[in-house]
Specification:
By secondary structure, the chain is an alpha/beta fold. Helix content is 22%, strand content 17%. The protein has a domain of 71 residues: Ribosomal Protein L15, Chain: K, domain 2. The N and C termini lie far apart (67 Å).
Amino acid sequence: MVVRREKKSRKMRGSRTMGWGIRGQHRDRGSQGGRQIGMHKEKWSWLVKYGKGWYGKHGFRNPTTKLTSAISLRKLNELLESGYIKIKEMDGKKIVDLNELGYNKLLGGGSISIPVTIKVGKATNKAIQKVKEMGGEVILSPTE
C-alpha cells in the first residue's frame, strides 16, 4: 500500500465533489438507526400498540421538590391489624417506626384502634390528636 505524503483532501481540492460521485455528493445521511418517521402513516399500528406518550409535552421534574411518602391512620391501622407491620415492644410501650418503613409523614385520615407510639418525621395536627385520644403518642424524629 502506498503511503500518502499529503491527505487525499489536498489532492481533491477543486474537484467539486471530492471523490463522492456526480449524483449524491455524500449528502445523504444513510440509515439513522432509531430515528423513525411515518408515525402518523405507515407505523401507526406500532404507535397505537407500543408508543404511549409518543406525542405531546410531558412536563418536567422540579429539582427543588422533596418527595413525601405519607400514610394515613386508616391505612396504618389496616397494616397493623393484618400483621403486615410488626409492632416492637420497648419498655412496655408498643412502638412503630414509620421512618424505617419508608414513610416520612403521618396523615389524620381515618382512625387507629391500637394504642401505639409512632416515630415519624412529620405528622398533621389531626393525626397527633387522634393517636393521643387512643392512648398513644407521636414522636417527631426528622430524617435527613
